[in-house]
Write a structure and sequence with these properties.
alpha+beta, Aminopeptidase, 8-stranded mixed beta sheet, 6 helices
């Protein structure tokens, strides 16, 4: 188990990741385009990588360090991506991460799933702050974070080494009081669909 409950939005089901998801994870996360703009997804991506991801997600959930959801398009349960929160309980904050498989780009699923995860973090986990980041130049992820109500908080220069490049990252955050004021990431908006991005570049493979 990687999540405590299922979450339904207008078009999606967010559910616990399962061993049956491994073939879809390998197929979707194995795309070069996914790995190229995420921190920890390797390329090429093998079944063992997916198993390691599921094992880590389960262990982190059991330890209270993370909540990871499979993203499925309702009414089925087939995986099209993943979203989750990596928790720092001592500070009541979490890092948001997500990825969407290439066949599902351009349909608003990242925005819808990320918005639901943010609502879960504030309303169910009682977090004070949720943050995320993306590689500089990834305007698709930028749009998702803006649509779910996050504010740009600055750039870390050459903060990430991905393969043979050092990459700047753009940082975003949202506070509980901002969420409660009814911004785009508020609970009432978790079912809305907007223009998506493909994934958060800070993703820990489905956080």
């Amino acid at each position: 188990m990687t999540a405590p409950q299922e979450i339904r939005t207008a078009r999606l089901l967010l559910r616990s990741l399962e061993r049956e998801d491994i073939p879809a994870i390998v197929r979707l996360a194995g795309a070069y385009e996914i790995a190229a703009t995420t921190v920890q997804i390797p390329h090429p991506y093998a079944e063992n990588d997916a198993l390691k991801f599921l094992t880590q997600a389960s262990e982190e959930f059991q330890a209270g360090r993370a909540v990871s959801f499979a993203i499925s398009i309702s009414p089925g349960r087939g995986l099209c991506g993943a979203v989750g929160l990596h928790l720092a309980d001592a500070h009541r904050r979490a890092e948001l991460g997500y990825w969407i498989g290439m066949p599902f780009w351009g349909q608003g699923y990242a925005t819808e799933a990320a918005s639901a995860a943010v609502a879960f973090g504030f309303e169910t986990l009682n977090l004070r702050r949720i943050y995320a980041h993306h590689f500089a130049g990834n305007t698709a992820s930028q749009r998702v974070l803006e649509k779910i109500g996050m504010r740009h908080e600055g750039r870390f220069r050459q903060h990430i080494q991905k393969w043979d490049q050092f990459i700047d990252i753009e940082n975003y955050g949202l506070l509980a009081e901002e969420f409660r004021k009814g911004g785009p990431a508020s609970g009432g908006d978790s079912n809305r669909s907007g223009e998506p991005a493909r994934r958060s570049d800070g993703s820990r493979e489905g956080e």
